[in-house]
Amino acid sequence: MIGERVRKYRQEKGLTMSELADRAGVAKSYLSAIERNIQSNPSISFIEKIAEVLDVDMNQLLNDTASTKKSSASLDAEWQELVELAMNSGISKEEFKDFLEFNKWKMKQN
Fold first, then answer.
1. pTM for this structure?
2. How many helices (H) and strands (E) does the chain have?
3. Angle at the Cα of 85 (from 60 to 83), degrees rounded to 5?
4. Neighbour-count burial for 67-97, b at 16+ CB within 10 Å, e otherwise
5. What is the per-residue pLDDT across 69-103, written as a single tens digit (0 to 9) for each?
6. Following DSSP, what letter does each residue of 46-96 receive, concatenated?
7. How far apart are CA 27 and CA 20, in angstroms?
8. How confident is residue 34, by pLDDT bands cut at 50, 70 and 90?
9. Domain 2-62: which topology?
């Protein structure tokens, strides 16, 4: 889960939850909810802020190392770029999933 990875990288950096929240400009209560897996679908903006302070790639927070390597190997460069563009545009995972479902439905209609 993303919260476990955030906690792991935060602790590796030797930061308290308050320090990370302050440096990233996010609410400590929200960061706490993420780390405790109470909130499990943070925005891309939140992930970007946390990743920057922790000096890690966003993919490291989104996926465990094994999954990241597997995903990167199975995606060609163009797909990887499209995924990064979607992530950077502010679209949530839920919105992206909704789009994919709509697209499947639309294709069945034709």
1. 0.58
2. 8, 0
3. 55
4. eeeeeeeeeeeeeeeeeeebbeeeeeeeeee
5. 444 455 677 877 888 888 788 888 788 888 888 88
6. HHHHHHHHHT--HHHHHS-HHHHHHHHHHS-HHHHHHHHHHHHTT--HHHH
7. 10
8. very high
9. 434 Repressor (Amino-terminal Domain) (1.10.260)
